[in-house]
Amino acid sequence: MEQVVMEAQRREETGKGPARRLRAQGLVPGVAYGRGQDNVVIVVPTDELESALGTERGANVLIDLKIEGVATPEGTAAIVKAVQRHPISRKPLSVDLQWVSLTEKVTVQVPVVVEGQAPGVEEGGVVDQIVHEVDVACLPTAIPDRLVIDITGLEINDTLHAGDLQVPEGVELLLEPTETVVSIAPPISEEELETRLAEELLEGLVEVPVEEELVLEEGEEVPAEEVPGEEVAEAPAESEE
User: Fold this and answer.
1) What is the tally of structural domains in the chain?
2) What is the pTM of this model?
């Protein structure tokens, strides 16, 4: 698997103030760690990080991370462990990068994609995908872009399970084979949908959405034209940022 080259620099200052200044310069603060290496506090160019995450491999892209003054063992690559994003613009605020051995298995999440035409859908049924991502274990060079599940031939009320996923050789699926992944649900009328929602509300199974306060960093403004986009990975990368 080809690696994406990413140039990083060591970061001397930490804290919210320096982090804001770095982002204004087109840099993303972060940290690199793993394989017995000392943690290295770094910054990476925003455009390079976005470009890497924008490949078909998404967060599972292999990165040839180059940090001036830092030597990494031979046969090493970096993977993205977490990206913290702005709640409105979705721009990366910080990133965690982990060095991994190309000869040792890693555990990652891979998206599940539904393919094929189901007769049950043509009859009015609805594709109900329960599992959208699965954990797999494999060598970093064998991480699949996605796992496909084929619904061709499914009728209404038919179900496919994790054991029906098309898993490449050398990839271990970390999900019980009997776990339901997708089914063809029978059609539901508008009246039935309203009744079901009303019953769930009474039972407390559905939460009524409420407005949440958006907390931004000091001096930040919410651009009116920007709306949230699709997440690539979401987890706090560094509490100090």
Assistant:
1) 2
2) 0.70
